[in-house]
Amino acid sequence: MGLGVLEDKHLSHVPGTALLTDVIGSDDHGPRGAAALLHGKGKDSDVVLVPQPSNSPNDPLNWPLWKKDLMLFFICIDTAVVGAWGPMISPGFVEMAKQFGISYNKLNGDLGYGILMIGLSCFFTNSMAVVWGRRPVFLLGNLLLFISSIGGYYAHSFEALLGFRLVGCIGMSPFEVLVTTTIADIYFVHQRGVRLAAWGLCLSIGVGGGTIISGYIIEDLGWNWTYGICAIMFGVWIIVLFLFCPETAYRRDASLNTDLGTTPLGDDKSGQYDSTKMKVDSNSPTAADAEIEVEVIERAAPNGALSEKKHSYWHDLKIYHGRVSDDPFWKVLTRPLLMLVFPQVLFSFFAYGLTTSWLVVVGSVLAQLFTAPPYNFTVSGVGLVSIASLIGALIGAFISGPIADWIIKAMSRRNGGIYEPEFRLVLIVITFILGGMSFFGFGWTLQDKAPWVAPVIFYGLQYFSVGFMTIAVYGYLTDCHRDKAPEAFAAINLRNIYSFGMNYFISDWISSQGPKEVFCIIGGIHVFICLCAIPMYIYGKRCRSWTSRKKIFEKIMNA
User: Fold this and answer.
1) 335-351 average pLDDT score
2) CA distances from 33 to 270, 417, 438, 509 (A)
3) 299 pLDDT more than 70
4) 169, 149 in Cβ contact below 8 A?
5) Which of 387, 82, 402, 368 is nearest to 208 (CA)?
6) Which terminus of the chain, N or C, has fewer Cβ atoms within 10 Å?
7) Separation between Cα atoms, residue 33 and residue 173, nearest integer Å
8) What is the pTM for the complete model shown?
9) How far apart are CA 433 and CA 440, in angstroms?
């Protein structure tokens, strides 16, 4: 048992498990063949690069770190604007309902169809990215958001606004699934935590910071101008993405994927892989002298890799570089639904999907909660409530990212150098404690009409705690199913359908039963979901082995 993760009895190399650190640091004592693997640099010199990069200069894993981080920076800024685009008009919902002559709940519920549109269109944009590449889909998403923002600026009826919102929500969908896929494309396992935190931070800044700014824009200029400003930003960012964000999908030799494999116990296959037995350090907390099967690759260059020339900058500017997958589009389109039968994906759907859906729901009713007595906030005042979520997201991102990477390296060293994706789930402990407190406290203080600072602090705590869940789940799912990460992310983003349903009746629910009962129920569900991480941590490796051995799951993965 590796730090509580039950060992598998069927495969010597379970997909997701990988040699991450040389715990002894000596070729005489370390695993035979580990010296042939490429390692990190500096303080990570004992960290094995997972997956192993190819010998091609065009492999995104071989790009300079500054190029990767610059690209991710531009995508994260774009993500922040996309995050702001969805809820930016929410501070003006009360005034907009009066302008259009409809109830608050109908306005909130009908605009919630955009959430449903995001969930459904994720399947199509994800499939396009898997088959034709990430770059054209990112550019298409920005183009649709640019067009819809122009339409939103000129919309003078609720029907027109709703129509353009739905178009924009299709454009938002790539940022629900492809940013995390891009991180998996260009970064190694031990580098992903900080980058996932950066993406989550920018998304939260957009959602929280956007409503702070939009509250003043709506109050001084009108809600239409929120779309006008976004149209300018998306127009500029289409050019930025075109110039600085090349294609990241890359066909790499299978022997380099040290985190993938299904070698049965007892098999001794020659060729690409050299399955070796490693004696665990006697000082390791794992069983003394226990033998662990570790799959190690030979550092042989794939045919032709050494002679491949580096692509020019002008070549990288091409929007479309040809198919990056031979799978038929319709098969990729249906695969996310089928992947929900995988225990890892199903757990991630509930853990990430339901938890983050609460944030969407809470954000949609802030105007209802804080414009009413005893708070009587103005439109800009409702926007300022989001300062709490912004601060919570900022602090959470700066803490959760480094902690996530530190945990997996520290636990891998204690586990004899072997990394298990379940190590990512340890972060959920923070979400369990603080997330439960935040939802219970938010509803309780609103019901008791406590001073505004109390519910606002609990609102910020929600964003702080849920950020840890996001990094844990996305990191876990990436490491379990890196080869099918886009489809897995599309599957868990079906949570938008749930968000839509909740968004449609949350306003009436609060009005009829009060915020205390509503948010205590939400908090109870959140606590239960977090507790489900315990059996997933213990039995996760056996689940990964099971899904890689059974024919039905193999058929789904190759559907």
Assistant:
1) 89
2) 14, 14, 49, 61
3) no
4) no
5) 387
6) N
7) 43
8) 0.76
9) 11
Check residue 48 and report its DSSP letter: B
Prior bond of 285 cis (ω within 30°): no
Is residue 174 within a helix (H) or strand (E), and if so which, with residue range?
A: helix 174-186
Count CA atoms closer than 13 A to 373's CA, side-chain side: 0
How far is the CA of 386 from the CAs of 185, 211, 378, 458, 463, in angstroms?
33, 7, 14, 12, 10
Residues 140-161: what's their mean pLDDT? 95
Contact residues for 418 (Cβ-Cβ < 8 A; gap 6+): 2, 17, 18, 19, 20, 292, 294, 412
Number of neighbouring beta carbons within 10 Å of residue 358: 23
pLDDT (0 to 100) of residue 258: 58
Radius of gyration of the chain (CA): 24
* N-terminal to C-terminal alpha carbon distance within the chain: 33
What ranges make up the beta strands (E) of 219-329?
A: 263-264, 273-279, 291-297
Question: Is the CB of residue 18 less than 8 Å from the CB of residue 48?
Answer: yes
CB distance 332 to 177 below 8 Å: no
CA dist., res. 285 & res. 280, Å (int): 9
Contact of 9 with 543, CB cutoff 8 Å: no
For residue 171, give the 3-state DSSP assignment. helix
For 50-83, give the secondary structure using H, E and C: CCCCCCCCCCHHHCCHHHHHHHHHHHHHHHHHHH
Greatest Cα pair distance, the chain, in angstroms, is: 78
Residue 472: half-sphere exposure toward Cβ, Cα within 13 Å: 31
Token readout for 439 is 């939802």
CA angle 469, 470, 476 (to 5 degrees): 90
DSSP string over 332-375: HHHHHHHHTTSHHHHHHIIIIIIHHHHHHHHHHTHHHHHSSTTT
Please provide the size of the chain in residues. Answer: 559
Flag whether pLDDT at 244 surpasses 60.
yes
Report DSSP state, residue 273.
E
